[in-house]
Every structure is written in structure tokens, then in C-alpha cells.
Amino acid sequence: MQRWAMQAASIVVCLLLWQLASSRHLHLGFITFANVPSPAEALDAGWQLLHSPKLWPHLSSSLLRVGLGFGAAVLLGVGLGLLIGRLRWARDTLLPPLEVLRPIPAVAWIPLAILMFPSSEGSMVFITFVGALFPILLNTIHGVEAVDARLIASARSLGTRRWRLFTEVIAPGAAPSIVTGLSIGMGTCWFCLVTAEMIAGQYGIGYYTWESYTVQNYPNIVVGMLVIGVLGMGSSVLIQRIGQRLMPWYRPQGGSR
């Protein structure tokens, strides 16, 4: 209860600071809050969106794109990460081109994605896939590399073959890093989705936010940003909770509980 109270208090403090800055039109050096809507205005805009018939099309479009892109990134990122982290030939042949592609920001893929896919939906799903792929891939590789060599040697001495070695030793040993990569990948997935929807979407939370900006409806911009934040945080927490259920043997060492 004490932790929940502290977390709730931190949110309340942020809202109060936001209200103070917007109501007094503060100028903090090169930052101004003269045109920033107040929490009350954002709350009113959120209430209107909640009762709008466009809410479900926006939410369902974004959730579907994130689900498809993230799901494909999980399959490919975890699979390639296990291979690259364990097999030298995979590292030598697959990792160099992936490392070349990794620093390219997702927004730079948008023109090429539009050319590659006949529909805008396909291009937006591809952008979310690219955003989630590399955090998942790299964390999986690092997790595989960090598996204790003594565990692998012990399993081999007991007659464990290569496939069972992957499924019963390497994958469980790398699972904490994989879950971390999934959580990070989900956050970048939402970030990239919003960027894609601003350019190529007709429905979606990112499109709703960008459309609000073009018509200068500033409270709706804040509502769109908050919805994105809540969805991103909720999906990342869900991944962490599922990971904890699937890894009863793992307990984080840092931090007090």
C-alpha cells in the first residue's frame, strides 16, 4: 500500500505542476506554457473522446498494427537471437547486415515501406516490426551469451542433445534478457507506430494526435499523447507480468521490494 501511495502521489504532483505551469502561462527560458492546455481541458477532451464513435476505430487500428508488428518481431527476433548467440556461423553471416540496419531510425523506413507494400496498413505494420525487432534481437543475443557455460557443460554430460539444449537450458537461461527485450521492444513499437500513423494512417491514436495538431485542437493532442503513454506502459507491464509467471525461478537482485 505504501508503494502504491507513493506512485499515486508522484502522478498527483506532476498534474499539479502541469496545472500551475499552464494556468500561469509560465516562461522557463526557452520553454513556454502559454499555449499548453490545462489538465482540466485535457480531461474534458478525453471525456468527449470516450463518448465519441471514433474511439474504437482509433484504438482497434492501433492495437491491431502493434499486435501484428510486435508478434512478427518476437518470432524473428527471438529465433535469430538464439541462433546468433549460440552458433558462430549464424553470428558471422547474419549479424553484420543486421548491425548495418539497426542504427537506421524507423521514420527513415517509411518512404521505402510505402514503396514495398501495396497498402498503407502493410507499411505501418512493417514500421512497428522494425522498431520492435532490434531490442528483442540484441537482448536475446546477450541473454544467450550470458548463460553459464557450466550449465551447458553439465547438460551435455548428461546426454542432452542440441535441440533439447536450446529448449531446456539456453532458452530458460536467456529468458530474463528476452523478457527485458520484449518490454523495450513494445515501447519502441508504439513509438514507431505513432510515427507511421502520422504519415500514412487514416485511423489510429497517432493519426488522431496528428490530426488534432493540424486543426489546432491542443487538448486533443494531450489526450492522444496520454492514451499512447497508457497503452505503451500497460502493454510493457503486461509483458513483465507474464514473464514473471513463466520464470518462477528468476528473482531480480537489484532494488528492495
TrEMBL record:
CC per GO annotation: plasma membrane
Subcellular location as annotated: Cell membrane
Membrane topology: Multi-pass membrane protein
Gene Ontology biological-process annotations: alkanesulfonate transmembrane transport
Main localisation: membrane
Record PROSITE patterns: ABC_TM1
Recorded family membership: Belongs to the binding-protein-dependent transport system permease family.
Protein name: ABC transporter permease
Species name: Piscinibacter terrae
